[in-house]
Write a structure and sequence with these properties.
alpha/beta, single chain, Rossmann fold, 5-stranded antiparallel β-sheet, binds S-adenosylmethionine, 6 helices
Amino acid sequence: MKEIFENVFGQDGRVLTLNLVPGSKVYGENLLKINGKEYRAWNPKRSKLCAAIKKGLKNNPIKHNSTILYLGASTGTTPSHLSDILTGGGLYAVEISAHSMKTLLRLCEKRENIIPILADARQPQTYREVGEVDIVYEDVASPEQADILLKNCRMFLKKGGYAMIAIKSQSIDVTQSPEETYKQVKEELSKELEIVEEISLEPFEKGHLFLVLQKK
Ligand SMILES: C[S@@+](CC[C@H](N)C(=O)[O-])C[C@H]1O[C@@H](n2cnc3c(N)ncnc32)[C@H](O)[C@@H]1O
């Protein structure tokens, strides 16, 4: 087994994280016993961050002790793997849907390094108590994706900190090509953040571009 990034492992083409809550699955993923430890198979079709890793992501700023503000946590599929990785850190999980939040809350009962926040990511002032973070991660399917990331980075991201975003072209403008949409979003983000890496998530996610950016 190889450690691809801090607390992210690779074996036989699979991406794995060490299960923080042994015996417990989050979204039906496979559990694997390797050298006496239990790992969770990270599914690239269910998680855009895993898809980016499978596609050869080179710059992953997430360390075991990072503090992450995660926008669009849903029921916690990707947040649960981040929770495995963040053995000395934690994540604030912002989600607008009360329905998804119910499932997320059950996950947070088992995983104390995830702090759930029921809020609209377009209004970061409503969760200002989060304070400074190392990374802002956004996976919100919204026409305002770029604006949401910039607002949250202005308010919470430390200087030199990183942002990660999965841009969904279909949510932003269905009338133009994904390439045109990516170009516009990148132009907007580049005013305040430096683009470190970009990866198309095809074939795992159609019409998605994953960006890693750094606060200037
Ligand atoms: C694609 S899903 C996220 C999946 C999740 N990131 C994962 O990988 O496990 C997008 C989520 O964003 C949430 N969302 C949409 N608009 C939002 C907003 N303005 N603020 C917070 N969450 C929002 C949706 O309710 C949905 O749960």
